[in-house]
Each structure stands twice: as structure tokens, then as C-alpha cells.
Here is the input.
Amino acid sequence: GAGVSQSPSNKVTEKGKDVELRCDPISGHTALYWYRQSLGQGLEFLIYFQGNSAPDKSGLPSDRFSAERTGGSVSTLTIQRTQQEDSAVYLCASSPSQTAGYTFGSGTRLTVV
Amino acid sequence: GQQLNQSPQSMFIQEGEDVSMNCTSSSIFNTWLWYKQDPGEGPVLLIALYKAGELTSNGRLTAQFGITRKDSFLNISASIPSDVGIYFCAGFPNFGNEKLTFGTGTRLTIIP
Here is the structure.
């Protein structure tokens, strides 16, 4: 598609459940990023994929968080055993190169109750 | 890690006023970007700056890459209601570092 697509747009889950968030980047963009935005806060880096290189996972807050990118395109962010502090908007972005500006999706708003 | 200090945190202005916001860092950045985020949406790129001293305009928006490479400024002239939102500065800290670092944002509100 023309932009970065994220699904679902909203997700409410019970504490302790696992969730999967999906990101479909712009076709041809080799770099894909996940950020987290808590209410009224800035963007917190989570993980970065570039081509076939090993992902940069340095921003993942705990081992409950993981992400994969299949075939260099779609990415899935998985949060296991969700906690209330995981509630936030999860933003995905892609870019055509390592130092180009990112194009963001509209995000997935996750609420853990 | 790298941090960007963005100010002010919030602004309340009247329609038609000019707006200025800035972003500073304790270390050098090689690229500065300014994004705007509307409610319920992801940030959208407004302006990109690649050289120290560069001054770039996009309509009523003007941004500058500071000479020291440690700061950047965004100005909005003659604000209109659709300028409401959160503005983020962002930058690539150094060559070879592919992750954008974001500022904490400036929330712009226009008073009727």
C-alpha cells in the first residue's frame, strides 16, 4: 500500500494474556522500526530491522517482548504475559535507507486491563 | 543513551501568532528532523535538515540545523487551527547510528 499499515488499531487485553501487533511497511523499504509511546510521552525505541541483518533489539524493555520480520516485509511485535504498564501506543515505521526519515503508521493502541 | 531536550513542553497561542520551539542535545547530531503528530495518528515528517547551518522552509514552517550540530529550531508563522498537535524533533546522533532519537515533544494548542 501507499503507507505503513498497522493492525489492529486498538487492542484491549486482560493482564497476563499474550498479544501480537502487526506492521506492514511501505513496499521496498528495507528498514523497519518499532517505537512505543506512552500517554503524553515521547517515542521510546524498541527494535529495528534492516534488510537481512540481525535486528537491533536494544530497546526491548523485557524478555516478554519480541519481534520478527518475515521475508523482509511484514513485522509482528509480540508481548507475552502482558502487564498494565505495557499499555501504550505502539508505532511502526519504515524507511528506504538507514538514515532517511521514517514514515510512521497510525499505531496500535494497547490497553491492558 | 542519547537524549534530546525539547522546549517548551507546551504552548498556548492565539491563531495568527508565530511559534518557535527548539531542541538541544549534549552531543553532536548529523541529521535533524521535525515531525508533527495529530491525535490518533503516527508522526508525520515536516522538515529534514542534513547540514550544519542549513535553513529549510516548508510553507509556513522554517527549521534550522544549528551551527554547533547540537541544536535545531522550528518556527511556524501565522498559526492556523490545523497547526494544533504535538511536534517532535528527532535526529541521528552520528554516522552509522541508524536509530532516530526523539525529543519529548511540544504540544501546541491554539486558543480561540
Remarks:
- Chain A touches chain B at residues 4, 31, 33, 35, 41-43, 45, 48, 50, 56, 59, 91, 93, 98-99, 101-107 (CB under 8 Å).
- Chain A has no helices and ten strands.
